[in-house]
Design brief:
By secondary structure, the chain is an alpha/beta fold. It is built from eleven helices and twelve strands.
Length: 351
């Protein structure tokens, strides 16, 4: 006897711009034979409507058409030692793999995506994200468009999270993701902002860059720290042009990126720019300012703003970390996952 026992089918137009993937059927879905009919489906319909989307325009499917016992997906997962040698898929959860008998479910899902070829795939929940990208960490990945073999993917939280008291706060987050999905569904390619960034610039490049800063309408400032001192100074004079200036480099003698003489010149350039009455933009600026003032920079804060405070004033119910705000307001990748945070790196409240 096999675990594979489909009890529902996908619904929606075969030429839909959006395919929305859920996890597995529950009791109501099993009775109706289609996905998202029960309480989580009712929440889904409500949020789609607020975002300007309609259920009937979406192709709705699941990772599994087989209902897990007691709606517990973990009952369909096995440890690595229980897998045959031919098993190639990555873990669905840490140390846990989808049962080999249920692999036809993935084959069916991928065949659906091949047939529909949507502009956008909405992956609701961790298993859905895993099924099309092999990635984990839905809370960190949600809101940021990811590539896949079958087109671009926008991960979001599963509507079922709203059925628990502690999960209701996720409702505005999912709605925000659906609003982004509506925009993304108009085109199939991933569109990232075009930027020119000076990374590890030379002293000559910095002289040219800071000359441009003098005429900037606004400057965006950010610092990274380690061991109680600034290790990187980031500054942008527009959404398209910025510089990342290192001070710490463990590869060099004394751990300093610059020679003593050049560092004095670089700090003077930064100080001159910060002291000008140009409006400045921070994210959780109190953190940056404590380091900038400690290192004796003279900062003119006329007409300056803080994105974290402004965002919190507009949407106090939403998280205010930099990663979350990036997922809402930008089309950047999940840049916080591009590198591991070092154990000795200071933790910032805006991250």
């Amino acid at each position: 006897m096999t675990l594979y026992s489909p009890c529902i089918r996908a619904i929606g137009p075969k030429d839909a711009k959006i395919v929305l993937i859920g996890e597995a059927p529950g009791e109501q879905e099993e009775k109706a034979g289609v996905p998202f009919i029960g309480p989580s489906g009712q929440q889904l319909d409500s949020m789609l409507k607020i975002a300007g989307l309609r259920r009937r325009d979406l192709y709705l499917t699941n990772v599994l058409f087989t209902r897990p016992p007691g709606n517990r997906l973990d009952d369909f997962l096995v440890s690595k030692r229980e897998l045959p040698a031919s098993y190639k898929l990555p873990a669905l959860r840490q140390g846990k793999y989808l049962h080999p008998e249920l692999l036809p479910e993935l084959e069916r899902l991928h065949a659906e995506l091949e047939a529909v070829r949507p502009n956008l795939i909405i992956a609701c929940g961790g298993p859905a994200l895993w099924s099309v990208t092999s990635l984990h960490g839905i809370t960190k990945m949600r809101g940021a468009v990811q590539p896949s073999r079958w087109g671009k993917v926008l991960p979001t939280l599963h509507p079922a999270t709203l059925l628990y008291p502690e999960g209701w706060a996720n409702r505005p987050i999912i709605i925000a993701d659906f609003i982004k999905a509506k925009y993304e569904s108009d085109f199939s390619e991933i569109r990232r902002p075009k930027r020119r960034l000076l990374i590890n610039p030379t002293l000559e490049e910095l002289h040219e860059f800071f000359a441009l800063c003098k005429s900037a309408r606004r400057l965006s400032i950010d610092v990274e720290t380690k061991g109680g001192q600034i290790t990187l100074f980031g500054i942008a004079l527009s959404p398209a042009l910025g510089a990342v200036i290192p001070f710490y480099d463990p590869r060099k003698s004394g751990n300093s990126y610059w020679s003593k003489e050049d560092e004095i010149l670089v700090r003077a350039l930064i100080n001159d720019t910060l002291s000008r009455p140009i409006p400045k933009l921070f994210q959780n600026g109190l953190y940056d300012l404590q380091y900038l003032l400690r290192e004796q920079y003279h900062i003119n804060l006329d007409n300056s703003d803080d994105t974290m405070i402004l965002h919190h004033a507009l949407y106090p119910e939403l998280p205010k970390s930099l990663g979350f705000m990036g997922s809402i307001y930008t089309n950047e990748a999940s840049w916080k996952l591009l590198r591991e945070r070092g154990k000795d790196m200071n933790k910032r409240e805006d991250e």
